[in-house]
Amino acid sequence: MFIGFHSMLRTAGLKIGLTEWLALMEALDAGLVEPSLRSFYDVSRALVCRDEGDYDRFDQAFAAYFSEAELPPKLKDKLAEWLSRPIERPALSDEELEKLQSLDLDELRKLFEERMAEQDERHDGGDYWIGSGGKSPFGQGGQHPTGMRVGEGAKGRGSAVAAARARRFRNYRDDRVLDTRALAVAIRRLRRLERKARRMELDIDETVRKTARTDLLEIVERPERRNQARVVLMMDSGGSMEPHTRLVEQFFSAMKKSGGLREVETYYFHNCVYNKVYTDIAQFESKDLDEICRGVPPNTHLFFVGDAWMGPYELLAPYGSLEMATSDKVPGIDRLAQLAAAYPKRVWLNPIPENYWHAETIAQVREVVDMYPMTVAGIVEAVSALLGRGANRDQREPIAMWSNDALH
Amino acid sequence: MSYQSTFQRWNGTESYIADDGLIAAVNVAVALQRPLLVKGEPGTGKTLLAHAIADGLGLPLHTWHVKSTTRAQDGCWVYDAVARLQDSRFGDRDVRDVSQYIKLGPLGEAFSSEKRAVLLIDEIDKADIEFPNDLLHELDAMRFVITETGEEISAKHRPVVIISSNAEKELPDAFLRRCVFHYINFPNEDRLTQICRVHHPDVDDKLLAAALRRFMALRSVKHLRKKPTTSELVDWISGLRLAGIDPEKLSAALPFAGVLLKDESDAAKAKKAGAMESDDDSDDSDGNKGGSGTGWRGWR
Fold first, then answer.
1. Are residues B24 and B91 in the same domain?
2. Inter-chain CB proximity B168 and A257 less than 8 Å
3. pLDDT tens-digit profile of A47-62?
């Protein structure tokens, strides 16, 4: 019964296994479903979905199965073909990015439908038509921060089943870049439990043993087992990081909540690290880099989080900082090297996709610190590298400095 | 065979208003004897749901408030070793009888209840990330063995298990597979009106309508860090009534805004979006203050 529905659910990307399916059959057998489609919808959704992100996929599959409504196949194929050959995206200025950010999902859908009706050919790199590599909110490989990805699996909205069609839960859909749980599990591997803490705890076993032997209450204490792993976070809060704010926040909260890290210190910088980094970005409170590099305890892991994307002079020139507060004679890249030398265990996490890492400043930063993509897989890899070996690269050789005059 | 005859159907209660999806999920969980996992924004009534189910079905409720330090075993039983040690020296109890130092936790209580019980595991995501996995066996088999005494506690009647989560942490797949899931969507305006009426049966119609309008406008502001919730709305209306605010004036000013918006940058965003009047005395319209959303942007 409903085998077609089952495969439709799987096609929609729901991880539905035998357990869920048998439970649904059991519910049908028990007469839990009233003779109405609405009731079947409610019951099957409760059994098949595992979180609210699944609701949208479920709605699509349900609408597709019970109304066979889909995007007209011809239109879909054509779209897929346009999008299969993405071109390189241009870099956007911060102002443009900000302007693009304002559209929300509903407006976007409406616009998309209107534009799809107007458009009749392949289009790449523009800022209006649907295509790849562009700044238009629609398409693939584009730069629109809140844009809509059009590609395989994009389904139209059917018309038969009202509840499913309305797709009330589409806002929650998350093909998550960063799953906080997987992340917390990964970070937890940094844990290093040692009985070195100053706080003492009651050793019950030993107390009982000694008391039994001497017939006098003998309290035995031992140092508490505590995690000795420390983490220092260096986070970029520059303008170009703004589209990644949510990602960074997720990472940050996973770091704080993974439990068992003895200490998480957080510093902020703006594009690049200079003689001072901020302890509180809003209050302009800062700390000297030299101080942070002094007396680093063992088992300390340094995570840079940033896009490493900046003006070349910001990284390479003396007094490269854009701000007065961190004006520094030493170029940023040498400050990075200073940190790297003080922290043998360090990695850089970059939210920008890996295929852009050949870009100028990113490549230069990579010479100093190993870089990993800011995805679950990337972070797992980074943690493995931190645990596996200490430093896997020697301190880099000084590179030729840009002259200040050449830039202006 | 109709299910009405085989089990008691739950339909919500007078004070708890549930939609069809939620009712279906509850009844599926009760009938199939699987735990019901409820997620939703804070203030959508997840905890109240368990009370309403217990009320509606006439069953006793056992609540297990999960904290960050809670271990899975705490829900089953707690062994008071220190009391026993103390008694062995000074007490008059027979310390050879370990069972008197065993105290059942909420899970154990629900299992050994003579009547079928409702067990609420509240805010399961507060605990350690491995916590739900540690509970899998107990919830599946509905029994556990107290290691100190070897006594097996198995459920006389499988309790109705309600688990609430604020989605602070994601739950493991193996755990999710065993649950019936429901996400409580944020109520729409009609339902909000109903809910407010339950809490304030004699509220002035005009005041309620005006307050709801302001509330919905605030909720629709984009990118708020923390959207105002139902319970805050109910509190806010209490405040408005106590202060005797004129509903007419509500469209020109937002009294007690602090009840609804708890984050400074949210207030700035609301002002920017026109959902809230800017008050000239506290800060200027540029939001040139530390910690505000615009302050962050000022970094570039």
1. yes
2. yes
3. 888 888 788 888 888 8
Domain total for chain A? Answer: 4
Does pLDDT of B251 surpass 50?
A: yes
A205 is a domain residue: yes
Q: How many whole angstroms separate alpha carbon B229 and alpha carbon B219?
A: 9
Residue of A26, A29, A32, A257 best to disrupt the B interface, most CBs of B under 10 A: A32
CATH code at position A319: 3.40.50
User: Which residues of chain A neighbour B128 with C-beta distances below 8 Å?
Assistant: 259
Give yes or no for a contact between B82 and B138, defined as CB atoms under 8 angstroms apart: no
Of the partner residues B28, B89, B300, the one whose CB lies closest to the CB of residue A32 = B28
> Rounded mean pLDDT of chain A?
69
Say yes or no: B159 and B92 in one domain.
yes
Residues of A in contact with B68 (CB under 8 A): 259
According to DSSP H, which parts of B7-94 are helical? 20-32, 46-57, 72-76, 81-90
A–B CB contacts, 8 A cutoff, strictly below: 117
Tens-place pLDDT, residues A200-248 = 788 888 888 888 887 777 888 887 776 778 888 888 887 777 777 777 8
Residues B49 and B146 in one domain: yes
Residues of A in contact with B28 (CB under 8 A): 27, 32, 43, 46-47
**CB nearest to B24's CB, from A23, A46, A179:** A46
What CATH number does residue B131 fall under? 3.40.50.300
Range of the domain at A307: 180-189+228-407
A334 vs chain B: nearest CA distance in angstroms? 23
Q: How far is CA A174 from CA A52, A107, A170, A179, B176, in A?
A: 9, 19, 9, 10, 17
pLDDT of residue B221: 82
| A298 has pLDDT over 60 | yes
Q: Are residues A32 and A56 in the same domain?
A: yes
**Is the domain of B82 the same as that of B158?**
yes
| Closest alpha carbon to A169 in B40, B228, B213 | B40
**Domain hosting residue B117, numbered range:** 3-184
Instruction: With respect to residue B142, please indicate whether it lies within any of the assigned structural domains.
Output: yes
Distance, in Å, from the CA atom of B213 to the CA atom of B215, rounded to the nearest integer, reads 5
Residue A110: the pLDDT is 57
Same domain, A213 and A232: no
Token pair of A191, please?
Answer: 């844990």
Contact at 8 Å (CB) between A273 and A337?
no
Residue A170 counted as domain residue: no
> Is there a single domain that holds both residue A291 and residue A402?
yes
Q: How many domains does chain B have?
A: 2
Partner residue opposite A50 with nearest CB, options B168, B181, B297:
B181
Same domain, B35 and B164: yes
Mutate to test the interface with B, among A45, A210, A258 (most CBs of B within 10 A): A45
Based on the domain organization, do A250 and A303 belong to the same domain?
Answer: yes
**Residue at A74 is within a domain:** no
Which candidate from A19, A181, A238 shows the least CB-CB separation from B170?
A181
Q: CA angle at residue B263 from B260 to B265, to 5 degrees?
A: 120
Q: Judge whether B287 lies within some domain.
A: no
Does B68 or B236 have the greater pLDDT score?
B236
CA atoms within 13 A on the CB side of A283: 6
CB atoms within 10 A of CB A321: 24
Q: What is the ipTM of this complex?
A: 0.75
pLDDT surpassing 50 at residue A83: no
Per the domain annotation, does A336 fall within a domain? yes
A239 interaction partners in chain B (CB closer than 8 Å): 297, 299-300
Give A314-351 pLDDT, tens digit per residue: 888 888 777 766 778 888 888 899 998 888 889 999 88
Residues B271, B244: contact at Cβ < 8 Å? no
